[in-house]
Amino acid sequence: MVPAWLTQLLQALHLSIGPELSLVLWGIILFTGIAILGQAAVIFMVLMERKVLAWLTQRKGPNRVGPWGLLQTLADGVKLLFKEDIMTTGQDKLLFTIAPAIFFLPVFVLYALIPFTDKLLAIPLPTGALFVFALSSISVVGIVLAGWASNNKYSLLGGMRSAAQAISYEIPLVLSVLAVVLYTGTMNIQEILTAQNAPFWKWFGIWLTPVSFLIFLISSIAEVNRIPFDLPEAESELVSGYNTEYTGMKFALFFLAEYAALFAMSALTVIFFFGGYYSPIGGTLCHTFGWDRAFESAVNLPGLGQLMQQFEMITWGLLKTYIFIFIAMWLRGTLPRLKPDQLMGFSWKFLIPLSLINIFMVALERQWQDTNEVVYGYLWAFVLVFGIGGFCWTMSRFFTRKLQARFQS
Amino acid sequence: MTEAIIFWAFTAISVTAALGVVFNRSIIYSALLLILVFLSIAGIFVLNNADFLAIAQTIVYAVGMTIIVLFGIMFTGDRAMLDEPLTSVRKLVSLVLATFTFVLLIKTVQFPFSIQPASQSVIQTLMQSGSTKMLGELLFSQFVVPFELASVLLLVAMVGAIVLAKKTFADAGEMSSQQLSYSIDSGEPTKEANSALHAAASRGEVHLEEVTRS
Lengths: 409, 214
Hints:
The complex is a heterodimer.
Chain A: H1 4-12, H2 19-56, H3 72-82, H4 93-113, H5 128-149, H6 153-184, H7 189-195, H8 204-208, H9 210-223, H10 235-238, H11 248-273, H12 285-288, H13 291-299, H14 304-334, H15 340-371, H16 374-408
Chain B: H1 2-23, H2 27-47, H3 51-76, H4 79-83, H5 88-110, H6 120-129, H7 132-139, H8 144-167, E1 182-183, E2 188-189, H9 191-202, H10 208-213
Antiparallel strand pairs in B: 1-2
Helix pairs in contact in B: 1-2, 2-3
């Protein structure tokens, strides 16, 4: 159903819609809006990535097609559309063709679960916070299949690495969000955001669970296969990994889905830890300072203020999301790639124990807040000292053993 | 009406895909169709307002488990299964097992559980806020013992897997099992094992990197 303010606005503009159209129209606005936002975000991100990397490595980046190279991505897209679709004889034709689709589809369903504003959310789910991870794990199947169907050892290795990596980093990813879910008591993404509708010194996501935020940031970068965790497509060892054999539009689908996944993960970081589409002082600026009402009465269009608020929310959400996308690009320009054993060890021996301790402490904190009994505070301090202490001790022993082994050989 | 159509669609998909899992010659297609079976069953769960169960099914069965299966298939190769002839012993064992499982399944379905239709308020809560909260409350109050028992079972499986994986470690170099004994409390190689390892490494038989990694 179209919200009442939008109907008002349309009526004021002499665009009255019947009740039948009203039922369908909001669905169309939602899904086309989200699809366009998603595609535009990806197209912009590709250019942004090249520009940021160029800036970090003191180059100029794309600057030929359009002003400041703005049309470069479109040109590349058109080029990919017209390229020949090559399939060699040894490949499994069916799997080779559907693998990019299996990779691409869940990522775009994920967009439907991400709220861009409080109204612009296609599928409000009571278990949305869990479902997004179910979706992002399905897309791994696409990578594994692409690696296998290519009939190429480099592709196969890339697919295998991707599967191992996705399984290992899924666990700390979900465990870190569990801390946020513990505080809000809900897995509904919209309600998690409403709970964070506050000035920035009260965004509980980041202040109450900073460890969760770090774990989430690291594992989300691993989950979308980016440097320093881009082993599935490590170009210095595996040519191009699982997408080595792909050309034309199939390759473009992989490319698109990777960027879309990065966007979705950054948007989720913002939603879980940084108050999503709300402005830094809570709510929206134009509503807090009364600009929307002033503007609405000035041009005499009822409902325009609501529309202004919606646009402001989209702007804040995208702005915060792009900050995290920038951080991912910055990391790509800065860090070297890990070795496969380091990658696995980091997840299983560092991130997972850390997130378990974190969950335990967050649960105690929550209980302390709810019951106001000081015994939970003592328990919390106990876990802090012995849990973190024991963790650091184990880590230091583990790493010194490794170093000793290296020097002895 | 719509619900019935969706239900029958999911059922048709899951049954067809399950038949495909059994009759497909290529084991990788079987694994893929297995994902489809799990996903369509997750769809049936959603139709019954069991949203948490559906998502858990997707994460654990449809992706987590099948990826491990795919992993195994891809490393061992697709053709190994096809070339191996089915011996009569194998056929017999699988026939007995299949019959037993089928009878068990039929009996389970026929078992008169005391299932009552959910009250209207429960259905309302399920529709609005999902089943997660109710499930959590039940799992940590009424069904806490079975829940913990299941987790102990998983722990046993994990310990077993670790023990099995550790065994391959003994094959490295020329070390006897005595030299490779582990002190149980710390889970690290004993002094003898360590020195034997370093000796093996100096002879170039073992790479210390690999040893310390495992």
